[in-house]
Amino acid sequence: MRGPDVSTSAALASAISAQFSARARWSPLEMVFWLGAFSTIWLLPEQHLILTEIVIWALLALSLDLILGYAGIISLGHAAFFGVGAYTAGLLAKHALVGEPVLALLVSGLAGGAFGFATSFLVLRGTDLTRLMVTLGVALLVREIANRAAWLTGGADGLQGIDMQPVLGLFRFDLYGHTAYIYSLTVLFVLFLLARRVVGSPFGLSLLAIKGNPLRASAVGIGQTWRLVGIYTLAAAYAGIAGGLLTQTTAFTSLESLSFDRSADALLVLIIGGTGHLYGGLIGAVVFRFAQDWISTATPQYWQFWIGLFLVLIVLVGRDRIGGWFAPLRRLADRISGWRPWRPGPAAAPDEGGRP
Amino acid sequence: MTSTTTTPALETRALEKRFGGIVASNQVSIAIARGARHALIGPNGAGKTTLVNMLTGVLKPSGGQILLDGRDITILDPHERVRLGIARTFQINQLFADLTPVETLGLAISERLGTGTHFWRVPGTRPEVVDEIAALLERFRLTDVMHERTAVLPYGKQRLLEIALAFACRPRVLLLDEPAAGVPDAERHEILAAVAGLPTDVTVLLIEHDMDIVFTFADRISVLVNGQLFVEGTPDEVARDPRVKAVYLGESLDA
What we know:
The complex is a heterodimer of chains A (356) and B (255).
Chain A: H1 9-24, H2 28-43, H3 48-71, H4 79-94, H5 101-120, H6 128-148, H7 150-153, H8 178-199, H9 202-212, H10 214-219, H11 225-250, H12 260-273, H13 279-298, H14 303-318, H15 322-325, H16 327-337
Chain B: E1 10-19, E2 22-28, E3 31-32, E4 37-41, H1 48-56, E5 63-68, E6 71-72, H2 78-84, E7 86-88, H3 101-113, H4 127-139, H5 155-167, E8 173-177, H6 185-196, E9 203-207, H7 211-217, E10 220-225, E11 228-233, H8 235-240, H9 242-247
Parallel strand pairs in B: 4-9, 4-10, 7-8, 8-9
Antiparallel strand pairs in B: 1-2, 1-3, 1-5, 5-6, 10-11
């Protein structure tokens, strides 16, 4: 075992602190990722509409990663929170209750979070199968309620007549989606920073413990109930904001935002990118949306066939994640930058592409 | 038994556990004195692990009571019992595979200090947590593997981390479920040294198969057979008891 000199207790203490702070530090690859993302504002102006879609998928998948990747709660009904946020943003704008988009987006997040909090108690216990069925059931219920309450939601026709005000009273939404993209990307970045901070905190560490070994977690005094409620609520708020973004950037929302397809695709996006490292949903969204675009152009009828095949291959062969395919690259970056110098050698390999 | 000086650290009263028709624990009443090194022995299937699981709240008793320092904890959840001062190790490692020993111990310490729910702080920024992690790593000889993922640690180190993690909860009563189980002979002395080196103010209940360990370590022994308390006494008394010898036919009890 190579390691730093820990012969004195001061050296030992600083080695411990170093291990913790290395976890919180930004790796060069992360910086490149975000620089790349923001550079698309100038580099790909004609792609802003599709990029906005990607950002919204990324945020929804990031939200799902918070519960699946960090707390081990699997969900097939995440669209429920997405849809609650989407309709909240739509109704706020349509009836001019909250005109300013950023503020309205916060309210959408609160609405998603409140609904998440209320339903979190249903997913606290039980196996993966129970959780899948409960989340699926909740989402189906919400969709049907939205369908029936046509006086409020517009029913099957969707919520029309939404007129968006400028962001912060300054930036109008334009036809080419430039404002929409910059706005969405900024929201994603801010929420990503928040999520990164939370999952790296003692609270985040205790979630990983609960996910990794619930028996032992309780044997070291970690109560699970409120922590799972907390992360589920936070994730639901994120999904609500993602839904709000969709409504605001398209000036429309429909039952699609609450559909089973959206829940399933969100899970698909996350699995493509990999769970438990926050970037999974982001990478997955890019791959998913562009693959959808390319494949459906090449073979319009069979696009779902290819995405299905891709999914099976990922789960069976990859087992891990696309992020893991970059492991050699990341190791190289680590070596160059000296990032995590205390975890050298092959023992570090299984953790590559792991938690940021 | 009302005076505080004689209140046992941990006590069970007529504790029972039935799984359908099977009685895994039958009217078990054990009192473990404060600061004791109490061993719980018995053949396979005697109900030792069932008893530990009831003491720690993993299993709900079918009847009877559990008292920690005279306080009834029978219906408390496992994590609530930990906060009241009872911690355990597991016979089969129950660790956090993806965390390092530093993170694992930091987790337990933060939990004990009530900072485990802080969601806006970088872990390891509190000097008292760092110092305590350092002390635990040294006490349990884990400094050389402190940066490794738990999953890749040698088995002996994982066993040490088992004990270190329970000890990080600063228990008043520590339950050790076969701490040296499966450890190769070469690494065994490290585990035994760690167990022997536990502070005397911590009450220890040791569940063990290995009679050498039991007779070097324990000052009191309870023998469980078929879910019932069979014999209890000092190591000498238990070793001489012909009924115990009959139960352990073929096994040497002469320490």
